[in-house]
Amino acid sequence: MTPGLLPMPLVDYLALSAVMFFIGVTGVIVRRNPLVMLMSIELMFNAANLLFVAYARAWLNDAGHIFAFLVITVAAAEAAIALAIVVIAFRASKNVDVDEASALRG
Amino acid sequence: MMLLLALLVPLAGAIACWALGPWLRNLAGWLATAAVGISFVATLLLWGAATQPGGVHLALFSWMSGFDFGLTLDPLSLLWALIITGVGFLIHLYSIGYMHGDRAFARFFAYMNFFIFAMMLLVLSDNWVGLLVGWGLVGLASYFLIGFWFERRSAVAAARKAFILNVIGDVGIMFAIFLIVANVHSIRFADTFAASATFGAPLLYAICAGLFIGAAAKSAQVPLHTWLPDAMEGPTPVSALIHAATMVTAGVYLVARCAPLWSHSPRAQMLVGTIGALTAIVGAILGTAQWDIKRILAYSTMSQIGYMIMGVGVGAYAGGVAHFFTHAFFKAQLFLASGLIIHALHNEQDVRKMGGLRARTPLAFWAILVGVLAICGIPGFSGFFSKDQIIQGVLENGHPWMYGVGLLTAGITAYYMFRLFFITFLGEYRGNVDPAQLGMAPEAVGAEVAHEPASTGSGEAHAPAWVMNLPVALLIVPSVLAGWLLFSTDGASSPWSRFFAAQFPTAAQASAAAVPEWATALIALGVVLAGIGVAVARYATRSAQANAVARLRDESLRMPKLLVNAFYVDTLIDGVFVRGARLLGSLFGRILDPHVIDGAVRGVAASAVGFGVLVRALQSGLVRAYALVIVLGVGCFLAYYVFGIPR
Amino acid sequence: MLVLVLILLPLIAGALLFLLPRDDVAMSKSVGAVAAAAVLVLAVAERGESWAWRWFSHPFIAEIHFGATYLSHWLVVLLALCTLCAVLASNVPRTRNMIAALLLLEGTMAGLFLARDLLVFALFWDAMLLPVFFVLIGWAEHPATAWRYFTYNFAGGLTLLLAVAAFGALYGSTDVIGNPAYHAIASAWAPWMLAGFAFAFLVKTPVWPFHTWMPQTYEETPAPMVAVVSAVQSKAGLYGFIAIAFALFPSYFRQEAPILIVLAVISMLYGALVALVQADAKRVVAYSSLSHLGLIVLAIASQNPLALSGALVYIVAHGLFSAALFLVLGYVEEREETRSLARLGGLGWANPRLTGVFCITALAALGLPGLAGFVGELIILIGVYQAGLVWAAILALVAVVLASAYMLRLLQGATNGAEVPDLPVRRDLTLLEGLAVAPLLAALLYFGVYPHALLVLMR
To answer: Which has the closest alpha carbon to C345: C428, C427, C417?
Structure first.
C-alpha cells in the first residue's frame, strides 16, 4: 500500500536509503583518501535526508522537510570546513592519506 | 596536715633547687638538707597517732568513683618514712661535702629531694595508683641520679637500663591494678584487702605475680637485677640512699604491705620466697668476684634484699622488715665510708689499688669494720638479730631448703665482706703499683681514671669536712644497736614485735620449728666464722700480706669467666630482648614498611597507571578505526533492539 | 553564634594575614598570636551552643549545623592551645605564610570538630588537608611528600564523601552527629558505609597498615605545622570513630570491632619497634605517634566506658605532648642544624633549659606517672582489661616498656653524652620559645595529677 502522498511503497525508499548509507559507511572505513571519505559522508547525509523526506510525505508532517534542509545546510558547512582542513593538512604533509595523520594517538 | 607537710616539703625543696639553682649555689645543699630534716621531724611528730589502731589517714581527692586518693601512715609506712627521711637527711648532709664543687651541685640536690618526695609518696599512699605513681617517680629520680654525670657514656647507658628494667616492674604493677580494679572497683588498699577473701586462687596468684614483677624490678631480684651493679655509675651518696637504703627495698615494702594477699596464696609465697633465696645466693656468689668497691657493695645489697624478699615472701614479715631496718643503717654506712675512701684516693674505686688505708682514712676503717661485722651477723651487731630472724622465720614457715640457702649465703657474705675489708685496709698501699701487675684489664684502667669527675682542683675538697664525717660517725650507732630492738628474752615480746603487732596477719600460725632459735643462731655463727676464716687465710695471713700484689694478680686472671660475666644474664637479656627488638624494628622499618606496605600502596597507584597504559592502545589516532568502532557500536544497538537481551 | 566565630575568626585572620607586609615577622606573629589566643578564650568559654541553617532539603536534608559535644569541646580547646603555641614558636623562613596556614588549619579543623552534619564534616575533612598541603609544597624538601600526603588523605576523603552521600540518600538526613533523635540506620548498605567512614579515619589517624604517608610527612613538615598536625589533625580520625562510626552504626561497629582491635594492637607494637631504630629524631616521634594512637583506637574498639573516658584523657594528653615534642625538636634542629640522632648529643650543658623542657616532654610521652599520658594509659588499659581483652592489654603493656626505650634513646641521644665539638653552640631557650611550650607542659602536669575535668564517663 502507498500511504500519504508517496508514489511508491515506503519500504522502497527505506531500502534505497539503507543501501546508500552502507555504501557511505563502507567508503569511510575502507578508503584512505580524505576527499573520497568526505564524499562518502555526504552519501550518508543524503541517505538520512531521503528518509526524512520520505517519512514527511508518508506521514504528512513538514518537520521532516525542515530537517532535511537543516541537514543540507550543516553538510555544506561541514564540507567547507573539512575541505579547508584537508587543504591545510595536504600543505603540511604533502600527503592526503588519513592513516598517516595519527597525531592524536594516545 | 603534718602528713602533707612531710610529703610536700621535699618536693618544694626540689623545685626550689631546680628552678633557682644558678642563684642558690652552695646554699642549695643546705636548703635541700633542711627540707628533708623538716620532713623527718614532721614524720616523727606523727609517731603517736600512727601507732594507734588504724593509723593516720588523710583523704586527698578523687579522679572519679573508685579512684580515690589519700595518704595513710601506719606502723609499716611510719618505719619506712622514718628511714627515708632520717637516713636521707644524713646522706644529704654528707653530699654537701661529697658533691662540693660539682658544676651541677644544685641540680643534684633537686634530684635528691625529688627522690625523697617520690619515695614518701610511695610509702604513704593508701591506694595502688598512688603507689604506682611513687613507684614510677622513684625510678625517674634513680634514672636522673645514675645518669647524673651525663657526659659519661657508661653512666647514660646505666641510667637507661635502670629505667627500662624498672618500667617492666611498673608494668607488672599496672597489670595487677587491672585485675584489682576489674574485681574490686576500687584502688584503695583497704578495699582490696577486704575483698581479697573472695578472690579465687588463680586470680590471687595473678595479682601477686604482677605485683611481684614490680617488686623484683625495683628490688633487683633475679632476673631483673642487672641494673643495680651498673647503677653504681651514680655518685656514691646516691648509691647509699637510693641503691642501698631506701628505693631498692620498695619491693620489700610492697610485699609486706600486701601481706593479706600473699598470706592467702601459698603459690605466690613459694614464688617470692624462691626468687628471694635465689637472689640472695646469686648476689653473694657474684659479690666474691668483684674488684670495684661499690660493685661489691651493690651485689651485697642485692643479696641482702634477697634475704628480705625471701622473708616477707614466705610470711616472716617482721623478720624481713627488720632486716630492711638494720640494713638501711649499715649499708648506708658502708657506702658512705667507701665514699670517704674514694674521695681520699682521688676517685679510685678498684680495691686492688687500695690497701693499707687504715692510717689514711681511720674513720672509714672503723665505719667499714662495724658495717662488715653488722652485715655478717656477728652477735651483738644489728645484722645478727634481723638475719637470724629471717632464717628462723623461713624454717618456721616450713621451707627447710630456703633455710639452708640462707645459712650458706651468710657464710659467703662473711667471706666477701671480709675480703673487701682486708684488701682495702691491710698490707701496703698499692696505688702506685702498675695496674698490669695487679691483673687489671687495660681498658678498665682508662675508665677508672675518668671515674667520678674531680670535684674541684683545690686540695681542701679532698679533706672530708665534718659534713662528711658526721653522718658516717652517727650511722655507726644504729648499725650496732638497732638490732637490740628485736631482742627479747621470751622470744615474742620484743619492742619490734609489739610495734608491728597489729600490722601483719598472725605469723604465729607457724609450726614449732624443728630447730630452736638459739641453735639456728649458733649454726649461723659457725658458718659465718668459717667464711671469715677463708677470707683470713686468703688475704690476712702474713704470707698473703707479703705477696699481696702477686696474689691479687693471680686471682684477677684466674677469676672464672662465668662470675666475671655475672652468669651471662646481661648478655642473655641483651642478646634476646634488646637485639631482638632492634632486629624486629629494623625489619619492620627498613623492609616491611617501605617495601611491603608502602609497596602495596604504590601498587594501587601503579595499577591505575597500568590501566591507563592498557587503555591507551585503543586511542590509535586512526579516523577509520574510530569509524569502525562507531559502526560496531551502532551494530550492537541495532542488534539489541532487534533481538533483545538474551535471557 | 559563638561556634561560628570559633570557625570564622581564624579563617578570616589567616586570610587577612596575607595583607600584611611579607617580611614583618613580629607583626604577623603578634596578629596571629592575638587571633589564636582569642580563639582559645572563646573555645574555653564555649558552652555547647549550636547554630544551624538549612542548606537543602532535597534529595535529603542537610543543615549547616555547628555545635560542640563534650568530646569536640575538648578537641577544639586542644586545637586552639596547640595553634597558639605553634604560632608563638614559629621561627621558619616566610613566617607570615606559615602563621597564616596555621590559622587556616585551625579554622578548618574547628569546623570539622564542631560540625553536626555529616556533609559539613566531609567538606571540612577535605578542607583541612589544604593548609598542610600548601605548607608541604612551600617548605618540604621533596614536593612529592605534599602530593603523597594529599592523595592518600584525599582518597580517604573520597570514601568518606561517598559514605556520607549514601547515608543521606538512605536515611534522609545528614544532620545526625550528636543528634539525640537519631535512630540506628538499618540498611544492607550500612556495612559499606561504615567501611567508607572507617577507611577515611584509619588513614587519617593513622592506623597500621595505612600509616606510610605519615613518617615522611611528619619528617618534612616544619615544626610548628607538624606540631598541630600530629597533636590535633590525627585526632580527627579518632573523633570520627567515636562520633560517627561508633555512634551511627553501633551494631555493625560492634561486629567489626575485632578487626579494629587487631589493627590497633599491631599499630602499637609495630610503631614502637620501628621507633626504636629510626635515625631521624622526627621519625622516632612519628612512629611513636603510630604506637600511641593505636592505644586510643584500642580503647575505642573495646567500647568499654572506662576505656572511652581514658581515651579522652589520652587524646588530650597525646595532643599536648606530641605538640610539645615536635616544637622542642624544632628548637633542637634550629640550634644544631641536624635531626640525626647519630650526630646530636651533649645539649645538656650548653642548653640546660631546653634540655629540661625536652626531658619533661619525653617523660610525658613515655607515660611517666604523674603526667597526663600515664592517666590515660592506665585508665584505658583498665577499661580494655575489663572489656575482656586480656591479651590486648598485656601486649599494650609491652608497648609501654618499648615506649620508654625509644623515648629515652631520643632524649639521651640529643641531650646526654659529651658535647659534640662540630655542632654549633647556640643560646639556650629564649623567653618566647619557653612560653610557647610552657602551657603544654603545665597542662600535662595538671591533668596528670587531677584529670577530673576530662574523666567523665562516656557512652
So the answer is: C417
Say how far residue C288 (Cα) sits from the centre of its chain. 13
A105, part of any domain: no
What value of ipTM does the predicted structure carry? 0.93
**Backbone phi, then psi, for B225, in 5-degree steps?**
-90, -10
Q: What value does the CA radius of gyration of chain C take, rounded to a whole number of Å?
A: 21
* Predicted confidence (pLDDT) at residue B235 exceeds the cutoff of 60: yes
A82 touches B at CB < 8 Å? no
Region B218-235 average pLDDT:
91
Instruction: Domain ranges for chain C, please list them.
Output: 136-458
Tell me, what amino acid is at C123?
Answer: L
Q: Is B151 within 8 Å of C369 when comparing Cβ atoms?
A: no
Q: Is the pLDDT of residue A106 over 80?
A: no
- Judge whether A88 lies within some domain: yes
Taking the CA of residue C27 and the nearest CA in chain B, the distance in Å comes to 32
Please check whether residue C346 touches B, CB under 8 A.
yes
Query: For residues B305 and B282, what is the distance between their CA atoms, to the nearest angstrom?
Result: 12
**pLDDT digit string, tens, across residues B327-337:** 999 999 999 99
Mutate to test the interface with C, among B69, B119, B120, B151 (most CBs of C within 10 A): B151
Which one, of B354, B386, B372, B385, lies nearest residue B536 by Cα?
Answer: B372
| Nearest by Cα to B413 from B285, B552, B309 | B285
| Interface check C184 vs B, CB under 8 A | no
- Residues of chain C scoring pLDDT < 70: 457-459
pLDDT for position B458: 40
* Of C277, C400, C416, Cβ closest to residue B167: C400
Amino acid letter, C229: V
Q: How many domains does chain A have?
A: 1
Q: What is the mean pLDDT of residues B186-214?
A: 91
Residue range A19-60, pLDDT digits in tens = 999 999 999 888 888 889 999 999 999 999 999 999 998 888
The DSSP line for B294-307 is: HHHHHHHHHHHHHH
Beta pairing, strands C50-56 & C62-67: antiparallel
Kindly tell me if the per-residue pLDDT of B446 is higher than 50: no
pLDDT at B451: 42
Residues 132-151 of C with CB under 8 A from B: 151
Residue B442 is which amino acid?
Answer: P
Residues B276-325: pLDDT tens digits? 999 999 999 999 999 999 999 999 999 999 999 999 988 888 888 999 99
Residue A45 lies in a domain: yes
Q: Which residue of B has its CA nearest to A26?
A: B628
In a domain, A55, yes or no: yes
Contact B132, B174 (CB under 8 A): yes
Distances (CA, A) of A69 to A17, A80, B589, C155: 17, 17, 74, 52
Sign for the CA dihedral angle at B231, B236, B238, B239 comes to: positive
Residue B370 C-alpha cell reads as 662495724
Residues with Cβ within 8 Å of C96's Cβ and at least 6 positions away in sequence, in order, are C17, C18, C20, C21, C22, C23, C24, C25, C28
Range of the domain at A74: 10-93
More confident site: C127 or B400: C127
Most confident region among B288-292, B443-447, B512-516 by mean pLDDT: B288-292
As beta bridge partners, residue C67 has C50
In the predicted model, is pLDDT for residue B605 greater than 90? no
HEC per residue, chain A: CCCCCCCCCHHHHHHHHHHHHHHHHHHHHHCCCHHHHHHHHHHHHHHHHHHHHHHHHHHCCCHHHHHHHHHHHHHHHHHHHHHHHHHHHHHHHCCCCHHHCCCCCC
SS3 B76: helix
Query: CATH no. for residue A16?
Result: 1.10.287.3510
Does B146 lie at the interface with C, CB-CB under 8 angstroms?
A: no
- In three-state secondary structure terms, B362 is helix
